[in-house]
Amino acid sequence: MSKIAPCLWFAREAEEAANFYVSLFPDSRIDHVQKNIVDMPSGKSDEILVITFTLAGQRFMALNGGDRIEYNHAISLEVDCADQAEVDRLWDGLVDGGTPVHCGWVTDRYGVYWQIVPAVLRKYIADPDPAKAARVMRAWMGMVKLDIAGLEAAYRG
């Protein structure tokens, strides 16, 4: 288990969000639900304070903080996808109630920023041929949801 786990702040939707995320990713589960022991600014006693959960083997925590705090692009969750089917499934799930951004980024219904990226993109932009890498970069920058066929076409020229 990793020593570092992202903590996602929610006003009161921590349980709903954790269940939503767990439903999208294989090898995911709710690990623990901690309720408030006493009344706190974030909620009354016996209401959920923190949920620890695992997404695709990575530990996370969701906190009901009481107040809404907006997320921004400074922190996002990147997901390496094996193929277009995985890109499509995760993108479609996260954009439901959320907002597509650009270059594979999506903001989910809770305002969390995600990057849904095919693993092959790293190979293409790291190619020693700068012309190939540049074509892929230009194609990538023009996409909203990433399309592997379009990236491959740019790579081939």
TrEMBL record:
Pfam families: 3-dmu-9_3-mt (PF06983)
Domain PhnB-like: 3-117
Secretion signal, residue range per the UniProt entry: none
InterPro entries membership: 3_dmu_93_MTrfase, Glyas_Bleomycin-R_OHBP_Dase, PhnB-like
Stored SUPFAM superfamilies: Glyoxalase/Bleomycin resistance protein/Dihydroxybiphenyl dioxygenase
Gene3D superfamilies on file: 2,3-Dihydroxybiphenyl 1,2-Dioxygenase, domain 1
Protein name as annotated: 3-demethylubiquinone-9 3-methyltransferase (Glyoxalase superfamily)
